[in-house]
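task queued by scheduler; priority normal; single chain, no ligands, no partner chains; default sampling; output format set to structure tokens
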Amino acid sequence: MAPEPLPFTGDELTVLRSHGLAFFADRVIYEAQPPISAKSLAYVESVCPGPIPEAVRELWSVTAGGQLDYDLTVTVEGRPAAFSWTELFYDGSPGYRDLHEWIDFQVELVHEEAAARGLAGQLDALPIGGFEYLERVYVVADPDSPRYGSVVAWMSGAPAWTGLPGTNTATALAPDLHSAFARLRIDSNPIRDGELDVKASTGVELLGYLESRCEDDGLPRELAERVQDFYLRAAVA
């Protein structure tokens, strides 16, 4: 299903963009980075076996990284598990690794595995986001694969007390990037449920970001409230 048209004018989107707010597949990205540079895109494609999936190109033409504040559940060995997809990796990220560092890391792993088998390796799964080194989101980047463009959620092994697998696991998240974003939701509306003071609650980071932009950087409050309303459309109840 195609995303609905954004309820913002072109001028409003420009203002929001100047305040680090961008949109993709009906979801809000904050601390949004500029679109990917031609140089960065050329590097990414140079380590992949073919053109990167069109949906990734579309995302990066809007913003080449930023922060997400949603809930997400994946199925691991037949059981639902919470999955943290809080960042779209970007160059210069202060996180565990930035976009190019994650790609270089994956390329190194691929080359090591290929060399052990006497093959030439290329990056067939592109890391685009996740949470530090614990949970990562990949898009299948091999045009010859029947799963080209599909999205995979990778989780590091969990402690035994969690009941989750103790070894690294990868599970299908969605058939394409738009569908993956559609799975991002808000389980509990932080405004309606009075959770704005609960730091770990989903939505608190984004709503706080909007407030700081209004108070400190001149984002029009009426426009910020409309972004808030748009964001809260992802609340499940």
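post-processing summary
- Residues 1-30+192-237 form one domain.
- The CA atoms of residues 50 and 137 lie 19 Å apart.
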